[in-house]
Amino acid sequence: MKVFVFSVLLLGYPNFFCSALRGSNELTLDIDKFPDPIDIVTEKQNDLTIYKPYDPNALKNIVQGDKPIWFKKRGEKATKVVVYNADDAPSIVRVHFKAGDQDQMNIYYLQGDSWALKGTYDPDQPGSPLSGENPIPEREVPDLQLDITAAAAKGVQVNTFVSCNIPTKVFKVAPGAVIRSLAVGETAVWANEKENLKESKVYQPKGANESFIFTAVIDGGNGKNVTKFFKKEGAEVKELAKNEFEKMLKEFVDQEVLENAGQASGDL
């Protein structure tokens, strides 16, 4: 009977049972250590390490060894911590938290032997700080180059999917990373000492190993984005007007539709 009652309680109240298993309700996350999986879920994504506390109210401090990064203030609760690693060492930390009912995000960077706050942001609009922004010194975060023919780049999240039957690869620059040049292999496509690349999308039809079209979304400052359009044909890379790019993309889609229709009729 006791076993039966315990089983009913466990099945009926899993959250209560798991909470009872967890230790202190005042947690400190040290990004140099692997946290207790009972308290915090840890995910690895290329150069990113993501921490998610089971109980956001319990996370009181975030540190790197003896270096403080973030501490909880009244009415705040940290929901997610994202660490960007450069050369296998933490370089940028994003702390997602709720301040009352508002979702906010702090970005920190390593300055010398301590962590400094870059600014507080709306997670959905990381380009517009909610408070005064302290620019990251360039000597602390070196400018990086994105090569869209390479498998990965530091500070860049890569996603691949199929859109309208066209294989598409999206390179999204992580908040806080500084990428000021774009390349296709050894060919430089875009570079600017003051503007930052935010995203690049590559559209490449199936079987077209040497040909594709791609975009570059650039932060032009004051919350304004500028999109540039390019095509690669063999060894040549050329900038396109928007209407030329849209025409080529439509041709890619139409070609895929025709090929798929031909395959379908052949199967009948």
From TrEMBL:
Top-rank taxon: Eukaryota
Q: Span of the secretion signal?
A: 1-20
Q: Keywords assigned by UniProt? A: Merozoite, Signal
Spell out the protein name for this chain. Merozoite antigen
The organism is Theileria equi
The UniProt gene name for this protein comes to p32
